[in-house]
Prepilin-type N-terminal cleavage/methylation domain-containing protein (Longimicrobium terrae), 288 residues
Amino acid sequence: MTELTRRADARAGFTLVELIVSLVIGAILVGSVFQFVNGQARMAGLQSAREEVQQNARGALEIVGGDLRGAISSGIVTANQRELEFMLPARWGVLCKTGGGSSTVMFPADGLPAPSAGQTWGLLARDSMTTPWLPALPTRATITAVTPATVTDAATGCPGLSPRGTAPAAFVLTGANHPAVGPGALVAVYQRVRYDVASGPGGVWIRRSNGVGTDGQFSMQPLAGPVDSTVVRFQYYGGAGGGLIGTTVATPYTRALSRIQFRVRMNSKQQRTAVTYDQDSVSIQIRN
């Protein structure tokens, strides 16, 4: 073997320095790929969190706004920054006759479920669009029982009020404090609905009532959350100019409220390393 061949054999393979350099470069490449993949995952997580809070905020506003669109100003029981209780009309009808703690009411379509009875149900009535709803709060006309009646029976007082070409249904609504209004008066059979903001799983939640318990207290169920407790609030407008009254209204059923605004900022339940939120509001005109 010549001297030249021995030197070529000595240079074959990687030197220690070259091996270290290749390992460093490989580590850098692996780290870069890991950072890229991790960044993509974080970006996807943030996007998912944004979509979550947007959907939650939009869903909460649609539900609250949908209920408020049916509310009557003189049927708003409690109105403050974090609590709103009102009478939500579920069925509209025409009064045939009233007396003795009961009212016979004709509803425009037959075949629908009978009006409900119970602690959250009641009725309001008015003789015309220019007269107030009765009874005036805090008195409530309750409905404790519902009995079907025959529209064509003269004893119900309905035959002379039944419109032509329709098949209405009539029911006797039994309870207390039924207003003394005349036949033909507009009747709203309502359910008491309550919203509030309170602590719940993982934070502060918007809650909605799910009936009343045997103790007479509302059964509140989480509706949407968690929310930013420093932002979520109800605001009330009314009076001659329809301006802002405030976030707390005493005896709201006497204030002729014209508009209620609900503002919410929803926090993400997914994102833990950074707060992701979406803020929005809904403003609803209230019927009087």
About this structure: The radius of gyration is 33 Å.
